[in-house]
């Protein structure tokens, strides 16, 4: 089921990057949006841009790692939007370093935002969607959810969890008329490196290099994500390299892990 012509959506991590791009993509449909983030100033700037693009936006301070904060979004959406058609679980962070060296506090931080944040969003809004027998979740994962990246174990673990959660929810919610899409992009420009934690300076350098590539960026990723929601697709893999890795992983996983990824890492 495609989104309504003027959808009502809740977006976490809406202050910048992909969250802002998704907000602007929906603003083109004159959407009514609830923008949730810890960065209130960034959220207000996104709201201003949404208004300029023809949409309506309301800002709420929210820490997605806190279940009470996310649960409160249901009532906020009712108050500000009159209900909700789409929940975008987008907020994300990153920590780098080898397993055994990444501090457990950093593991907890990444798990709290990237995985528990999505779990909290799905847990809070699933009863409402089941009750109204419509609605859609767009859960933002990453290509790191299906391919390993040495030095990014916390990130990969959480994104793989988001993929698994989304696949399970697809099975559970389809009989209720509720859709689920999991978005798995590779690299494009965001502020995730600036906010990241970790001991691996080389990994941050590689990430910045890949994110600065010309080509597919946040606006394109957002457009493809919403197109996938409209089409009722489970998987949205917008980057060509991500789609190639995904096919190799499914067909010949040993080749990917034993040959391709080690060589790719050496050449970066």
Write a brief structural summary.
By secondary structure, this protein is α/β, with parallel strands linked by helices. The chain has 9 helices and 9 strands.
Q: Would you mind describing this structure in some detail?
A:
The protein is of the alpha/beta class. The chain has nine helices and nine strands. The chain has helices at residues 17-27, 40-52, 67-81, 104-132, 153-173, 201-211, 218-231, 240-251, 253-267, and strands at residues 8-12, 32-37, 56-61, 86-89, 95-96, 136-140, 179-183, 197-198, 235-236. The strands form two sheets. Strands 3-2-1-4-6-7-9 form a seven-stranded parallel β-sheet, with helices on both faces. α2 (40-52) links the parallel β2 (32-37) and β3. α1 packs across α7. The longest helix is centred in the middle third of the chain and has 29 residues, at 104-132. The model has no long low-confidence stretch (mean pLDDT 88).
Salient structural properties:
alpha/beta; two-stranded parallel sheet; 9 helices; globular
Mean pLDDT over the residues: 88
N-to-C CA distance: 41 Å
Biggest sheet statistics? 7 strands, parallel
Structural class of the helix and strand makeup? alpha/beta
Question: Which percent band covers the strand fraction?
Answer: 5-15%
Q: Could you give the order of the helices and strands? A: EHEHEHEEHEHEEHHEHH
> How is the largest sheet built, in terms of strand order?
3-2-1-4-6-7-9
Assembly of the depicted chains: single chain
SS summary, helix count: 9
Q: How many beta-strand runs? A: 9
Low-confidence regions: none
Relative helix content: 40-55%
Q: Over the alpha carbons, how many angstroms does the gyration radius reach?
A: 18 Å
Shape: globular
């Amino acid at each position: 089921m495609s989104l309504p012509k003027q959808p009502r959506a809740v977006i976490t991590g809406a202050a910048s990057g992909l969250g802002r791009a998704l907000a602007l993509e929906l603003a083109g449909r004159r959407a009514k949006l609830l923008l949730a983030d810890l960065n209130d100033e960034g959220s207000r700037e996104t709201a201003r841009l949404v208004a300029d693009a023809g949409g309506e936006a309301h800002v709420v301070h929210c820490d997605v790692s806190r279940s009470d904060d996310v649960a409160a979004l249901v009532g906020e959406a009712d108050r500000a939007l009159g209900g909700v058609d789409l929940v975008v679980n987008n907020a994300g962070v990153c920590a780098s370093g080898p397993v055994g060296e990444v501090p457990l506090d950093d593991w907890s931080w990444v798990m709290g935002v990237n995985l528990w944040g999505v779990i909290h969003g799905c847990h809070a809004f699933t009863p409402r969607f089941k009750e109204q027998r419509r609605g859609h979740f767009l859960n933002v994962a990453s290509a790191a959810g299906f391919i390993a990246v040495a030095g990014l174990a916390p990130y990969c673990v959480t994104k793989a969890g988001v993929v698994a959660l989304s696949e399970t929810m697809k099975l559970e919610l389809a009989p209720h008329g509720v859709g689920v899409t999991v978005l798995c992009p590779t690299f494009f420009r965001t502020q995730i490196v600036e906010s990241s934690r970790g001991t691996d300076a080389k990994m941050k350098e590689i990430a910045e290099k890949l994110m600065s590539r010309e080509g597919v960026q946040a606006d394109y990723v957002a457009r493809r994500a919403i197109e996938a929601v409209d089409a009722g697709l489970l998987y949205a893999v917008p980057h060509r390299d991500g789609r190639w890795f995904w096919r190799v992983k499914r067909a010949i996983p040993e080749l990917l892990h034993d040959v391709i990824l080690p060589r790719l890492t050496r050449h970066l």
